[in-house]
Amino acid sequence: MRAVKTGVAKPHNARLTLLCLVLAMIFLWLISDFAPRQYLKQQEKMPLNTTQITVSSNPDATLIVRRATSTAVVDTTGMSAKEAKKAASRVAITTQTTITRPQNNDMGPYLAILDNSQAQLKYRLPVLEATATSTIGFKDKPSVSSPHPVVRDGLEWIFPANTAQQTYLFYDPIAQVSMPLDYAGKTKIHDLNAFVFAQEIAPMELTLPGLTPGTKYGVNREVVVEPKSGLIINISEKVQVMRGNEAVVDTALEWDEKTQTTQAMQAGKIIVRGQFLAAWSWLCRLAFIMLLAGVIREIRVLLKGAKINA
Length: 310
Description:
- By secondary structure, the chain is α+β, with helices and mostly antiparallel strands.
- It has one domain.
- The protein is built from 3 helices and 13 strands.
- Strands 1, 2, 3, 4, 5, 6, 7, 8, 9, 10, 11, 12 and 13 form a 13-stranded antiparallel beta sheet that branches.
- Strand 1 and strand 2 form a beta hairpin.
- Helix 1 runs antiparallel to helix 3.
- It is elongated.
- 22% of the residues are buried.
- The mean pLDDT is 85.
């Protein structure tokens, strides 16, 4: 007769399986919760080494071009460790505002303003210290710089991520002041859900160097913000400049289509990345639950084996 081979099945190593499942759960937690959370924190910070160019125009060919650039405050020469850490938490903002309007067939810059300020890297809010300076120049007149830094407490070219339905201070480069910008409702722009904010600056006398004394400036401004990214999608303004009883400027301006489209595309990319991370996190958590069920099963196997061996 032919001999029949008999074998013994390898015992189930519940301890090893349990260890592998726990390690897999830790890995899933890292890629489903910790990593996305850290990524979103980075996205909420003030963008570094970026330049935003916006163009406001109207049918009368008046143009307001703003170029905002953000860079790290890297010059820490002579700073203590504490001061260097403080500088690393800030962003230097340089904003160039150029106003061009037709006058005697001359379309050269009429007014140029260079603003320098600092913002908090983490929250995108202004640094409430005397760090802001301005240089202002009118056509055919020498530029004049502010004698000393001042505190600037208004937002300029970007809002905090996850923008709230509240009042913010918003800086006006012409008036050189920050005034309340009130939440005014919701709207849809370029297929994006957005918040609308409104600001009214009643006619006030300008104190810009080189400007004729008694010149008054007022503006009604509407700012449309995509709240998740904090990016401004559009700004529309009704501007009036009075000299005595004469309206030197009385016009309506709005960001041009290219500016709005560019801003909307950037905001859209941020929204899509957030949606992808949310879906990815959900799938990983589902896998986490399945692994947890496996862990519970292996613990039962261990407990059952312990009872048999007792």
